[in-house]
Specification:
It is a single chain. By secondary structure, this protein is an alpha/beta fold. 19% of the residues lie in helices and 11% in strands. Strands 1-2-3-4-5-6-7-8 form an eight-stranded mixed β-sheet, with no helix packed on it.
Length: 194
């Protein structure tokens, strides 16, 4: 089997293809490397100006080495082998969108540090209980969530689709969009008037 592509090699290929220094780029796409990237190694530290980083469709197991990405707003890690969200705390102050669908995430421990996160696409993972789902309510700006294909969502969706939306938005009330559907809430009449 071929040896994995390193981040350093992927960046060199990217620079050659784009005729630009990765250290100066605002957007870097390292998705679908052949052979795939397996580790988010220290070479990522050169991406100091990066606002959008795509590492999707690789074989990455752990989120790591994001400490130098002080401008990162969008991180795409879909279709990898990621099992947890450890490592995201390094970009907690800037990350607005996390695209992490088609991984093996069961627990959402550590997500609460993501105070700027507005968009979370995490369909087709392994979250199976409400105790994990409610951690999303700790994200003050989260408004767009894709959660379809997680065991928890599938369990409710098999009964009635509206039931899932109702139950999910009850637990994470700030959502404006769930699984691509606009969430319309009845405003509480005379809220706080008494």
């Amino acid at each position: 089997m071929a040896k994995a592509t390193t981040i350093k090699e992927a960046l060199a290929k990217w620079e050659e293809k784009n005729g630009q220094k990765a250290s100066e780029a605002k957007e870097v796409k390292l998705y679908g490397q052949i052979p795939p990237v397996e580790r988010m190694d220290e070479s990522l530290s050169m991406l100091v100006n990066c606002e959008k980083l795509s590492l999707s469709t690789n074989c990455i197991e752990r989120i790591a080495n994001l400490n130098s990405l002080k401008n990162l707003r969008i991180l795409s890690l879909g279709r990898n082998n990621i099992k947890n969200l450890n490592g995201l705390e390094a970009v907690a102050d800037t990350l607005e969108e996390l695209w992490i669908s088609y991984n093996f995430i069961e627990k959402l421990r550590g997500i609460r540090v993501m105070k700027k996160l507005k968009v979370l696409y995490m369909s087709n993972n392994l979250v199976k209980d409400w105790a994990e789902f409610v951690r999303l309510a700790e994200l003050p700006l989260l408004e767009d969530l894709v959660f379809v294909g997680n065991p928890l969502q599938e369990k409710y969706a098999s009964d009635q689709k509206n039931n899932w939306i109702e139950e999910a938005t009850k637990r994470v009330p700030k959502l404006k969009k769930l699984d691509g559907i606009l969430v319309i809430k009845e405003e509480e009449e005379d809220e706080g008037a008494n």
